[in-house]
Structure formats: structure tokens, C-alpha cells
Design brief:
Helices cover 18% and strands 50% of the residues. The protein is an alpha+beta fold and 101 residues long. β4 and β5 form a beta hairpin.
Length: 101
Amino acid sequence: MASRLSLHNELLQFEDHVYFQPPESIKLVYPCIIYERSSGLSEYADNKTYAYRQAYNIMRVSKDPDSEDKIKQMLFYFPMSRFNTHYTKNNLNHDVIVIYY
């Protein structure tokens, strides 16, 4: 079973600054990846759960509005992932994907 720390290490391939649920007191360095646990994915057979994968919301935050290549790289790297949304807040671009890990 994969751990959150192994996911963290894999995310470091895509950005130098990766944060897990950072407190508001931390000054973030951009571009960065911020991630948190989300609901998981259960698979059932014979009225039992036989497989479970934890889901993580992975948010890449960047000042560059044209940085979708990093998101595409992550989507191809993690086979159980999907793009969720993009939004802009405080002149920063936020791309959110969901990874089942």
C-alpha cells in the first residue's frame, strides 16, 4: 500500500516546493504543489470492500497562466488521476487534479 510520504516524494519530480496541508503561517514559494487527502475509492465484490485507494486533491499554484504542461505531465505520470478544475485567485493560477494513490 502506497503511503502519503511516497506520494510526496513523487510530487517533488514536478515542483521543488511541495506542501501537505500547509498552515496559514507558512509563506509559500511559487510555483508549488499543495495537496490534501480527499475521499477515497472503494471497490466491492461479494458485499465486501476488496480494494481501496486514497484520493488526494493536488493543487498546482503558479503565477504563469500558461503552465498546463506540468499538469499534463502529472496526469500521464499518475495512471489513476483526473483533471478537476482551474481557477485564478490573487493573481495566481490554480490547477486541481485528483489522484487515487
